[in-house]
UniProtKB/TrEMBL annotation:
One of the protein's GO biological processes: carboxylic acid metabolic process
Keyword terms of this UniProt record: Decarboxylase, Lyase, Pyridoxal phosphate, Transferase
Pfam families: Pyridoxal_deC
Gene Ontology terms: cellular component: cytoplasm
Organism phylogeny: Eukaryota, Fungi, Dikarya, Ascomycota, Pezizomycotina
Name under which the protein is recorded: Pyridoxal phosphate-dependent transferase
PROSITE patterns (UniProt xref): DDC_GAD_HDC_YDC (PS00392)
PANTHER family xrefs: GROUP II PYRIDOXAL-5-PHOSPHATE DECARBOXYLASE (PTHR11999), MIP05841P (PTHR11999:SF70)
UniProt source species: Lasiosphaeria hispida
Cofactor: pyridoxal 5'-phosphate
Family affiliation: Belongs to the group II decarboxylase family.
Amino acid sequence: MVAARDKYLRETTPAGLKGDALEDAIAHKRSRMVVLATSMTHSSTKKAAIILGPVLAAALDSCRARGLEPFFLAATLGTTDTCAVDDFEGISSSLADFVPAGSPGEVWVHIDAAYAGAALVCPEVQEATKISLIDRFHSFDMNMHKWLLTNFDASCLFVRDREWFTRALTINQAVYSNTASDGGLVTDYREWQIPLGRRFRSLKIWFVMRSYGVKGLQAYIRRTTQLGEDFANWLRARPELFEILTGPSFALTVFRMVGGNTEESNVRTRKLCERVNATGKMWVTSTLLDGRFAIRMMTGVRTTEKEHVEAAFQTLAEIAEDVVKGT
């Protein structure tokens, strides 16, 4: 986001300004710059951004009418709550009508694929998500430690032009000067990030890729995704107890207990969640979707087998039956 802000300011601030005039122009423009994202974007984006409406075209028109200047859009491949995927084609089309790609002042589009990005090793997922449109966007990030068999932490960030980062984050101090850096013989990653130092993460990624290979990684993603399908099918077989709200998507199924109304369903589902976690046999997380309390069940773990998922469902079903009985 820092690089996007720097790029936007360089491209849209009037040329020829210097000194106080330049600082004043930048300060004025910064006061009108906004970030766009869906309501289900990752929490790290929410901490740094103003969240506008989910309909991009309407949000862009609203910004323009209010004199605001969108400079950064956080799109998501696999939202935290439900693993939903944003409409990349619609995003590209809406932005082209606002400021054409490649034009000065274009909106920087970052794709957050922290968890679900791992599934892109499978061609069918690439096609389904239309990730080929990524060449119209600016940056992409995914965490291999979340679903691609790598120990924490291993976040892979791709940017279309590394100069956007280095121009925003380079610090020219004599103490950092050296022949290799000055001659462009090495890549100084301190110029790609806010900290000066960084941990050595590439070796463990190399080991994973060499150990599993493309086919091995694809087989792992497909197997754990199928476990999610199996779990969802078991839920569907008990419609008197469960209702699927979203998924299965990227090995994640979001569901709740049925009830006479939303409030009753919320109470039942919350009790189910608390009692299941209290057993110590398994652990589920929860979310709130449009006022509906729901449970999130994820099967994307290397050691998880079908027998484990079936046992988890049986535990859920047994406790759900007790909740309905009021015991």
